[in-house]
Amino acid sequence: MTEIRWNMYPLVASHELARSWLTLQRNLQLEPKTIDAYGRSLNDYLSFCQKHELIPELVGRDEIALYVRDLAERPNPKGAAILRLDTGTGLANNTMKLRITAVRLFCDYLVERQLRPDNPVGRGHYVPGKGFAGARARGLIPTYRRLPWIPDDSEWLHVLTAFKQECLRNRVMLCLAYDGALRREEVVTLEIGDFDVAYRQIHIRPEPAKGRRSRVVGYSEVSSRLLSQYLQRRHQLSNKAGPLFLSESHHHFAGPLSLVMWSKVVEKMADQVGLPNFTTHTLRHLRLTHMARAHLDLHQIATYAGHASLETTLQYIHLAGVELTEAISRSLAGFEQWMENILGGEIP
Fold it and tell me: Against a cut of 0.90, is the pTM above it?
């Protein structure tokens, strides 16, 4: 069972009810990353309560509103380096939603234990023995949905050119991450046994996959050639089965490559080509968008990506305006012909 990193959220560790709630989440088999996110969020809330001399389990709607305001107005950790907000203040929208979600779930727990009559964060009315009933209130934090940034064709060529100078391992990682639309953890934790080289396919195990959903993805002939070369190098580093990508640093020689190291490789390349928005996840966005541009069915794209919902797939696909208008024109050509025949004559 995953151990909770109590040292990362000391206020949660020292608060009996908060500690009990986070332990419950662990016992319910939530993902380690989710436990960590909840722990950090609840620790932030307890810090706010401590600063304003509030009893966390007794706060009301007014105090929750003050907490939301604090989240929106506090200095952003990224400061001047922030890319998507107009100012250096306020946490990112998704971070604010996560903070409030953790508080809401914690208050749900208090209501269930009959330690308070209601949940100040809202989202329905609690009925003992029946859970929450009635109309759900809208969330306290508005949701902003942005299309994911992806490089245009010329920028993508710059990225590929930059990676041509990288070591063989990094080139293989880039190709496989793009070909398979792989998340960072999925590509870094690939194992030799995950590959079917005869069919150029990779079996993505459920352990590193989001939502614990396994799937099969393919890779290109170029990736196959690079992979074949890297396997020879991999054998020189270690002849043991297991992780495909190994570290070649003196401090961790022949050990499994870490997630942070892959992020640093991509970050360094992004700075080199002047694309600060380019991250390890951009390769996934780009691949799914390219699949959409190739007119693959949305359900096929969702299956390839490992998405449980088509709505999620739509958020990942970033089609340019010209492509959308061309597709609409092709689809509605017959109807537009009617307009041309009737309205398209000379203007009197």
Answer: no
